[in-house]
Amino acid sequence: MFGILNLKKPAGVTSRDVVNVVQRLVKPAKVGHAGTLDPMATGVLLVCVGKATRLISLLQEAPKTYLAEFQLGQRSDTDDSTGEVEHLELPDNPPTEQQIQAGLIRFVGTISQVPPAYSAVKVSGQRAYSKARRGEEVTLSAKTVNVYEIQLLRYEWPSITLAITCGTGTYIRSIARDLGEQLQCGGLMSALERSSIGRFKVTSAIDADTLTADNLQSHLVDPIQMVDHLRHYRCTDSDQLLVKGGRLVDVDAGRLAGNKQSTESNVALTSDDGNSLLAFAEFSKDGTQLQPRAVFMT
Prior knowledge:
The protein has helices at 15-26, 56-60, 97-105, 128-133, 172-182, 216-219, 237-244, and strands at 2-9, 31-33, 42-50, 64-72, 74-76, 85-87, 109-113, 122-123, 126-127, 143-156, 159-166, 187-197, 200-201, 206-207, 231-234, 249-250, 256-257, 267-270, 277-283, 289-295. The chain is of the alpha+beta class.
């Protein structure tokens, strides 16, 4: 078992619930997911199986796109509609679409963002949501996140529908809260779908409850599809024996492909036909050999 499952998470379950479905089917192989979704959220959840769990950090770095719905004129302790909602007095003149657009621009780029009190951020060794649920005061520090694009798809007071593309660690709930504060009317997130992580789209995701021990293998995506941004080195049969043992591979320049200007230190070692990922490697100091660092082949 070695690959990535593009699963469609339903509302009302945790990301861990979905992972557990896969774990029962592939036991004793390792399983892990690349990015938690809140229970209310739906959409793409990438589950890595076997040695593909070593790719989780790489997957987490990929841009993510969300389809989000915000409600203005409301606040909640969770910054979404699942918490204790406070309905605020509606303004006589609701924000115009131009004001919404101008407000959203401030959330694009490298921004400072305070996570929601009900989040998985650790405070003194405990999850923030655990402390918040006990009624304890939670004070979280702002952190830097990257928001690449926000598109306003629909605005009909008090509802806003947005497409947001961002980097890892971004809380869409925080954008809803902060936009509401900026507009002086309050705001919360009422719906969220993760529509993509990198090249993985919700339109091609599968329902976890359709997985069986018989069909799971056919749904695994080969990790070779995740490393096309790296330099590639096609390994001969004799090279593959060296890679399997973690030993140095002499570089044949004719077998090296990809962007020579890439600053990424990893090189993807592939099968001779280039269709399977065998390992990640790094060049030796003189550039004549490749040292395997993470070996995926068995």
